[in-house]
Amino acid sequence: MVKRGLAAAFALLSAAVTGGAAQAQSTVPSPTLDAIRARGSLVCGINTGVAGFSLPDSRGVWQGLDVEMCRGLAAAIFNDATKVRFVPLSSSTRFTALGSGEVDVLFRTSTQTMLRDTTLGLRFATTYFYDGHGFMVRANSGVTRARDMAGATICLLQGTTNEQVTADYFRSINVSFQPVIFERGDQAQAALLSGRCDAYGTDASSLAAMRSTMPNPADWTVLTERFSKEPYGPYIRRGDDNWFDIVRWYTNAVIEAEELGLTRANVEEQRRTSVNPNVRRFLGVTPELGQSIKLDPAWAFNVVRAVGNYGEIYERTMGPDTPVGLPRGPNNIWTAGGLLYALPMR
Length: 346
What we know:
Layout: H1 2-27, H2 31-39, E1 42-47, E2 55-56, E3 62-63, H3 65-78, E4 84-89, H4 94-99, E5 105-106, H5 114-119, E6 122-124, E7 129-131, E8 133-138, E9 153-157, H6 161-172, E10 178-182, H7 185-194, E11 199-203, H8 204-212, E12 220-222, E13 230-232, E14 235-237, H9 241-259, H10 267-273, H11 277-282, H12 288-292, H13 299-307, H14 310-317
Parallel strand pairs: 1-4, 1-5, 9-10, 9-11
Antiparallel strand pairs: 2-3, 6-14, 7-13, 8-11, 8-12
Helix pairs in contact: 3-9, 3-13
């Protein structure tokens, strides 16, 4: 009897503490979310143009993985994926634009590093894409590994981790090279095509994207070596914990939807009929997830209905059946041999 009484008392105390914390969280103001709602749209920083991530189509409509992540976040907030304005930003201006309030969030092929995380006044939310630094050269160059590029001129983008990764690698093998620095990827591509550069160094996904837009993609090859870890994720400004929670858990939700087998095609039926407690909680049949981050209980349902799960987004933006043609690899979910792993949403 004593043990049962203590257990019951502990359960009540735990519920009170948890409920109190949730209530306290719900009353904390979010300047960013309030501004977005007052404005009526999300302002999302994206790349100036990388196929598969963010590139205007023939109608001038932005398309790509990062673009879809922005649209999904708008759906989470407004239940309307069109309520987003895209701001193209170069590598060297992206963090300044975010810090100054020009954009609400960056979904822009941005790697998490220790110094970025601790010195820029910004916060990295969570990883949604895994990449690594590589090099692209002409297929007939005779170069099969980076070590073969002694004395080569290499195109690089200003303000990226790729500048340092390239310099560190060649320094480590005591080989010289000549960097040629550009503000934008299209400038580097033009220099590569003209012969001004012997190679282009950046993340492998961007190399595959650039190769797909070359006049003759078969003339170019991406070397198989990788020289860094490049985990991409959304960045926000520090000082707004609720906005951090929204961006972090929204990104997890896109991955979680794939883990749960929820798609654009089945999500409405699953919300009506599923008896799985995880699915019901995720889709807002029970409201606690939405309440905890000041969003509608159906926020994750609205995301999946609007843009689909992570796998669906990936396949239509950069998967094997697209011009980019990039296999999932590490960007598959963990149950399929990849690195993507949604944190528990409960």
